[in-house]
Amino acid sequence: MKRTAVWVLAALVAGAGLGSGGARGEAPRRQRITVQIDGETLHLPNGMTFVLVKRPGAPTFAGYVGFRVGGVDSVPGDTGLAHMFEHMAFKGTRHIGTTDWARERPILEELQRVGDRLTRLQAEGKGTPQERAALARRRDELSAQEHQYIRKDAIDAWYTQAGERSMNASTGDDLTQYFVQLPANALELWALIESQRIREPVLREFYSERDVIAQERLMRTDNDPMGRLYEHFLATAFMAHPYRLPVIGWPSDIRALTMQGAEAFHHRYYSPSNAVGVLVGNFDVAQAKQLVLRYFGTIPRRGEAPPVVTREPRQEEERHVEVPFPANPQILMGWHKPTWPNVDDTRLDVVASILGDGLTARLYRRLVERDRVALAVDIDNGDPGVRYDNLFVVRVVPAPGAGLARVNAAIDDEIARLAREPLPAAELEKAKTRILASYLRRLDSNLSTATLLGSTALLTGDWRNLYKYLSDLQGVTAADVRTVTTSYLRRTNRTTAVLVRPAPSAVGSVP
Questions:
Q1: Quick check: helix, strand or coil at residue 249?
Q2: What is the mean pLDDT of residues 260-271?
Q3: Which of 99, 291, 424, 493 is 20 to 30 Å from 401 by CA-CA measure?
Q4: Does the pLDDT at position 344 exceed 70?
Q5: Phi-psi region at 64: left, alpha or beta (left = phi > 0; alpha = psi -120 to 50)
Q6: Residue 475 CB partners (closer than 8 Å, separation 6+)
Q7: From the CB of residue 129, how many other CB atoms can be counted at a distance below 10 Å?
Q8: CB distance 28 to 426 below 8 Å
Q9: How far, in Å, CA of 419 to CA of 480, rounded?
Q10: How much is the pTM?
């Protein structure tokens, strides 16, 4: 165990607020604000890392457990599996969610054999109609038998009775994360539930939940204009890297997911060596250490998750895709760029703030206020994930009647201006201050602090890298901004995806 005291150095504008600068554009006077986070880092024998941060205040805590697995770890054929397993993690364990595990278990084992065989036959187009119908009937019979022993939503019920707030989970391209806020006297309950989710999850209601996810995909992607555009955008921007694959999965892959595949996925990625736990709040640290060691420290280590070795080839030409959909036009533009710890990623955060952070940002003033070619514009530096090299993305909602050419011309001009003209010191400091302030705001609550420290540890290998990032950020210069703008935001490195209304005769053909 290693005790740490980490100091966050944040540059805030003194006296005049975030948006003010001197009369001649000189840099505003800056004041150093020091924030201390006292924590203990525990490295368990099975490879799991825990961060314990005690804070004064109400006797509550935020609990976080994250795994370094997401959509980027998919391969064609099992896309959506990381997201599917997140759903399964709420179905309970051998001790939670069942009235009689000894009787439920043989039913579930036969259900897996029958259901997985039916799934494989359907996915491969094999088997006679009679065979598939018989398997479907038997699967439904077994599901009905198993339901006699299921306590639905048991984890939710236990946490609710304990006084939970903000219980949720998320699966992205890089990580899967589980988090909840609880009273301090529920610390052992949290350790029991979360450790069992790693040690012995039970895949109850697998096939019905698979249908739920298929419907979720319809709602979020197939029938959603931005979801449809975003999927085509990533598939065009990334030719090789698995960031091109949808986190929720392709429809055919979702239908082909099996319980056997989900169990193998759990064994591969839900190893404690691939996980980080965080506790933040007013709790007994000595008790927390004992509980962490007792509940999490005894989970067997199951090997190392396989690395993603594919790298995206350098893009040498501009790419463009049009996506027909009966909705108002939208535009996505993305430029390939490195991820952290490459310092250019940090510098491009500053570029993103200058161009797209707020109503005073350059692209908003140009596209929305001056040229009136857009209704909205925003920027994300680091899409769709940040474990691997990613994209600097601009999203634009064009104004009615404004074509892509006018929007492109305005964006190109603002990028060229940023690369060509001297950057006022006040504008640079304002951009860095906005980013720093956003990190300080995340440290305000127990839950946001837990997710920030946990995700930083999972993504970079050490949660203290957050402070190296903040230090690098403060060192960004105007020359750095010009260099990365010129290096990365060039047209041959750009991919553009445009949502367009289909011709009237083709509207009915859009799925």
A1: coil
A2: 95
A3: 493
A4: yes
A5: beta
A6: none
A7: 7
A8: yes
A9: 10
A10: 0.91
Helices (H), 245-316: 251-256, 259-269, 285-291
CA–CA gap between residue 339 and residue 173 (Å, rounded): 14
Environment class of residue 196 by beta-carbon count within 10 Å: exposed (0-12), middle (13-18) or buried (19+)?
buried
Q: Taking 90 as the threshold, does the pLDDT of residue 262 lie above it?
A: yes
Mutual angle of helices 425-442 and 478-488, in 10-degree steps: 80
In sequence order, which residues have a C-beta less than 8 Å from that of residue 8 and are 6 or more positions away? 34, 35, 36, 37, 439, 440, 443, 466, 467, 470
Three-state DSSP state, 8: strand
Q: At what angle do helices 101-124 and 129-147 cross, to 10 degrees?
A: 160
**Burial group, residue 401, by CB count within 10 angstroms (0-12, 13-18, 19+):** exposed
Alpha helix (H) ranges present in 292-399?
A: 343-356, 362-363
Q: How does the average pLDDT of the chain come out, rounded? A: 91
Q: Which amino acid is at 237?
A: A
The arrangement of strands across the sheet holding 319-324 comes to 319-324, 494-500, 330-337, 390-398, 374-383
pLDDT at 499 over 80: yes
In 137-281, the DSSP E strands lie at: 165-171, 176-183, 275-281
Written as one string, the DSSP assignment of 170-188 is: EE-SS-EEEEEEEEGGGHH
Sheet with 176-183: strands ordered across = 2-13, 30-43, 49-54, 275-281, 60-67, 176-183, 165-171
Q: Select from 171, 172, 173 the least CA-distant residue to 388.
A: 173
Peptide bond between residue 251 and the one before it cis (omega within 30 degrees of 0):
no
Could you tell me the two tokens for 10?
A: 């944040």
| Range with lowest mean pLDDT among 175-184, 299-308, 360-369, 386-395 | 299-308
Rounded to the nearest 5 degrees, what angle is found at the Cα of 296, between the Cα atoms of 293 and 297?
Answer: 50
Place of tokens 């099996």: 258
| List of residues 6+ apart from 145 with CB closer than 8 A | 107
Residue written as tokens 């990334």?
238
Amino acid at 28: P
pLDDT score for 509: 47
Q: Give residue 36's pLDDT.
A: 63
Whether the pLDDT of residue 510 is over 50: the answer is no
The predicted structure's pLDDT at residue 20: 35
Return the half-sphere exposure (C-beta side, CA atoms, 13 A cut-off) of residue 71. 24
Q: CA triplet 126, 131, 137: central angle to 5 degrees?
A: 125
Q: Give per-residue pLDDT as tens, 191-240.
A: 999 999 999 999 999 999 999 999 999 999 999 999 999 999 999 999 99
Considering only the C-alpha atoms of the chain, give the largest distance between any 2 of them, rounded to a whole number of Å.
Answer: 82
- The secondary structure element, H or E, covering residue 209 is helix 206-217
pLDDT at 38: 79
Taking alpha carbons only, the member of 372, 378, 345 closest to residue 465 is: 345
- Confidence category of residue 503, pLDDT binned at 50, 70, 90: confident
